[in-house]
Structure formats: structure tokens, C-alpha cells
Amino acid sequence: MTPNHITAARVVMAFAAVALFGHNLWMDLGALALTVAAIGLDALDGYLARQRKLATPLGAQLDILGDRVVENLFFTFFAVAGLVSLWIPVLFFVRGTLTDFLRGLATRTGRSGFGKNSMLESWWGKMLVASRTSRAAYATLKCVCFCYLGLQLTFLHVSPLDLTASSAAWILWTGQALVGMTAAFCLVRAVPVIWEGRRYFGTLGAGSKPVAGAWQ
Hints:
single chain; mainly alpha
């Protein structure tokens, strides 16, 4: 199995999880397992690429594409279900489109991925975006957020549990807090990409190398 196969499997698992959420407890448990796998396997494909020396610019772009599909799929689903504001998937879509556009410009100059050839050169950019700590924290936060919202569908709309008004409010508030933290972390991690990616606007219409001194 190649890293690209794992990326494709993650996307399939995410779609399957969305299809299972919100029906009954057993289907929710299956959806939770698929959600954890869809997020957790993001670390496996990168590890496999490094260990087997299979890392390629295309693979790096497919990995990012897989992340975007999974993020937007879950947040769009929960927005349609009425658990999050429609502006949340819009925010993730716009943020992802902008950062991926800049990464695409950087790839034209041979800068891609999270290793030595990454487009990020500053220490703070690498810390916020490329470090294993940041990536693991972001993946964990997304996983907890998606799993919680999925269970919330059952607790508030399907389950016969007799929830008090205060309990229901607490469950809703916790979900919104997780969504807010995930969105905030997403925006913070976009800042270095946007800041350092501005220099690559000089590649537009100027061949494959940045224009010297552009946006410095």
C-alpha cells in the first residue's frame, strides 16, 4: 500500500462516517471509529512516505487535498444538520483555497511538502504549520470536534434520553466551543503560509522562479 492509497482510504472513511452519523448508537460507534481512522491515518501516510522514500511533490499535494476534502465534508455535513453555522465550512473552504493556491505557486519553484524543500522558511512558520506537535494537535482537535458533533446528533435529535434544558444547553455550548477552537487553530496555522507565500506571487507570468525582491 502506498501513501496515496492511504490518502484515498481516508477520504472514503470520512464519507462512510458521515453516512453513519445520527441514526442510532451502534451506527454512531462505527462512525466514530471511521472518523478516528480518517484523521489518524493522516500521520501514517507521511510516515510511510518517509520510511519507504516515496515522498513526491504530487503525494504532498494529494495529502493536502485529502485533508481539505475531509475537513470540508464534515463541517458541511454538520452545517446542513444545523449543528454549526454555515460560515464555518465557508471559512474552511476559503482558507484552504487560499493557502493551497499559494502552495501551488511555491511548487512551481520546487518548494513543496513539509521537509527541507518546504515553502516555509521562518522558524515560527515551521513551528505553527510543519512541526509534528502542531500537526498532531490540529488533527486531534479536529477528531475530537467531529466525533463530538456526530454524537451530538444522537443525543439531541435521535436519542430518547430525557435531557434537561441545562444539559442540552451545555452539550450545545461544548460543541460550539470545540468548533470555535478548531476554526481558530485553522486560521492561526494559515498565517505563516499566507505571509511567506506572498513572495510567490512573483512567479505569475514570470516562469518558474520568483521575481527577485518581489513582496520582500
